[in-house]
């Protein structure tokens, strides 16, 4: 697989790919693009590219340009240098031009904490059961509803986040908490303490079972 050709094809065919994906898969793709932008080195970038390839390889037809790029062989003896910065910038630019970007901005606009504040409250910024949203042009942020008045992580939220697979799909999990939930009749993050913990857990379990 040529990761560079695959990501180039994805940037070129972004609108077509977005139209073919269901909301959950598109949200996962957006999260991976954000991770690629934040990747610290080429090794992490390559692992994220593999995740993108796996995600799209399961949903795109074999004749699609991205799938064809995935199928292109790469010599074991002469592997091309990959310009990760250019690739991540190209994809981020395409993401910025697409309609779902407004949803990302809405989620990023919610009250949030930085890594230092999470640690000060006794939380672990690396906790996979806490939603961590990559910053648009800066450090990651953790939505504030996940923490109590003293800054400690809410066990209820951590439990719900496991049902929502927040570690794999932070944008989708944040959207669940901050969007209207018909089953609960309100915004889940605003209903913490207003409805029973079990009601929130049951709603998340029900929604995750439908995927």
TrEMBL record:
Region (Disordered): 116-135
Protein name: Uncharacterized protein
């Amino acid at each position: 697989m040529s990761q560079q050709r695959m990501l180039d094809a994805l940037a070129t065919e972004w609108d077509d790919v977005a139209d073919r994906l269901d909301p959950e898969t598109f949200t996962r793709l957006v999260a991976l693009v954000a991770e690629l932008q934040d990747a610290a080195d080429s090794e992490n970038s390559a692992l994220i590219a593999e995740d993108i390839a796996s995600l799209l390889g399961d949903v795109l037809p074999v004749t699609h340009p991205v799938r064809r790029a995935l199928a292109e062989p790469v010599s074991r003896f002469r592997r091309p240098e990959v310009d990760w910065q250019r690739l991540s910038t190209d994809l981020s630019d395409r993401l910025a031009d697409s309609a779902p970007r407004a949803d990302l901005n809405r989620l990023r606009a919610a009250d949030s904490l930085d890594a230092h504040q999470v640690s000060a409250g006794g939380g672990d910024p690396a906790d996979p059961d806490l939603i961590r949203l990559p910053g648009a042009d800066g450090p990651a942020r953790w939505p504030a509803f996940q923490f109590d008045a003293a800054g400690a992580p809410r066990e209820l939220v951590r439990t719900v986040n496991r049902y929502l697979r927040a570690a794999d799909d932070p944008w989708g999990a944040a959207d669940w908490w901050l969007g209207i939930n018909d089953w609960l009749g309100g915004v889940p993050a605003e209903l913490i303490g207003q409805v029973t913990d079990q009601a929130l857990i049951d709603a998340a379990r029900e929604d995750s079972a439908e995927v």
